[in-house]
Each structure stands twice: as structure tokens, then as C-alpha cells.
Design goal:
Helix content is about 80%, strand content about 0%. The chain is mainly alpha-helical. The protein has one domain (about 1-79). Helix 1 (about 1-20) crosses helix 3 (about 55-79) and helix 2 packs across helix 3 (about 55-79).
Length: about 80
């Protein structure tokens, strides 16, 4: 059941990150993957700050922040 929640949160986080960052989109599948990887990156960033999510909204916020960081990094490397 955790895998299903991770996929759903990843999909939503990837979509939200795409909305926040604007510009060209990456498509549904890439957004899902970006959101899932963003959850890991967000976990690392939040862990360094000593912050841990305690509920679903916190996990979603963490994944969105991570996905936004990944999008910004990808755009910076592409230029």
C-alpha cells in the first residue's frame, strides 16, 4: 500500500512542481518519476535541515520541494 501512496504522491508532486516552475513540460510519466525522485531529494534536503514530515501533506510538500530543486538543476545544466 505504501508503494501506491508513493506513486500517487510522486505524480501529484511532479505535476505541482511543473506548475510552480512553468516553462516546457516533461509529460505525465516523467512528472511521476520526477516527483518520486523529488521525494528522495526533498527528504535529503529536509533531513539536512532537521525537518521530518509527519503526515501526507508534509510528504507531498517535501516531494514538491525536491522536484522543484530537480527541475531547477536540470534547467541550469541544460543551459
Amino acid at each position: 500500500m505504501d508503494l501506491i501512496w508513493s506513486i500517487l504522491i510522486g505524480a501529484l508532486a511532479g505535476w505541482l512542481a511543473g506548475q510552480v516552475m512553468k516553462g516546457e513540460g516533461y509529460g505525465a510519466l516523467k512528472n511521476i518519476l520526477l516527483g518520486m525522485v523529488g521525494g528522495v531529494v526533498g527528504g535529503l534536503v529536509f533531513g539536512l535541515l532537521g525537518i521530518a514530515p509527519t503526515n501526507l501533506i508534509g510528504r507531498l510538500l517535501m516531494a514538491v520541494v525536491g522536484a522543484v530543486v530537480l527541475i531547477a538543476l536540470a534547467r541550469a545544466l541544460r543551459k
